[in-house]
Amino acid sequence: TNKYLVISKDSICNKAFQSIPRNDGQSQSTYENSEIDNYLETEWFISLSSNIKNAISITKIKQVSYDDNLKKQETGYNGQTFNTIDRHVFLPSVEDLKGLVDLENTSKVKEFLGQTSIWTRDSNYNYANDARYLYVGYGGLGTNYVAIVNGIRSTFVIDLSKVNYTVTGTVNYK
């Protein structure tokens, strides 16, 4: 296959996950149609060159939540269900990040993050308005109120058969 999951090396910008209460009845930590989801799928994606946009595959993603013991849950706060959605660009999930960096190794997490904590698309099972993020302060997975500003690492699936490219190196923080 020529399709690869790409997570940007650096934060593309700093934004709140969802700065104000939603008017659709969803909790603020719902990724689908959140401010951060809309920014990535519209503003950021649209700003890319047509060659890159054409090479990015629409991907089915689903938000999950993690409880205070970091146990993965398929539902969110108060039994909230999450839809599978189609996106060009999205926030990485905790699972996406686990494939790239050992989340149990604080020095590896800090090396991966540099100076910027980053959002994941996953929420906190125990709180309606908290999402999971990778925190540079202690080099691990944490939870933060969604109106707080953190870094964004754009994530997408690219079909390399649709672009002319040269591999210059890879980085693995495991």
DSSP strand tally: 13
| Number of helices, counting only DSSP H or I runs of 4 residues or more | 4
Low-confidence stretches: none
Rounded mean pLDDT is 94
The proportion of residues in beta strands is: 25-35%
Oligomer class:
single chain
Shape: globular
Strand order of the largest sheet: 6-5-9-10-11
Based on helices, strands and strand pairing, what is the structural class? alpha+beta
Q: Please write the string of helix (H) and strand (E) elements.
A: EEHHEEEEEEHHEEEEE
* Computed CA radius of gyration, to the nearest angstrom: 16 Å
Short description:
With 174 residues, this protein is an alpha+beta fold.
Explained architecture:
The chain is α+β, with helices and mostly antiparallel strands and 174 residues long. The protein is 18% helix and 30% strand. The protein is built from 4 helices and 13 strands. Strands 6-5-9-10-11 form a 5-stranded mixed beta sheet. Strands 1, 3, 8 and 13 form a 4-stranded antiparallel beta sheet that branches. The chain is globular and about 45 Å long.
Give me the secondary-structure topology.
Layout: E1 3-7, E2 13-16, H1 35-46, H2 50-55, E3 56-57, E4 59-62, E5 65-66, E6 72-73, E7 84-87, E8 89-90, H3 94-98, H4 106-113, E9 118-124, E10 130-135, E11 140-145, E12 149-152, E13 155-159
Parallel strand pairs: 5-9
Antiparallel strand pairs: 1-13, 2-12, 3-13, 4-7, 5-6, 8-13, 9-10, 10-11
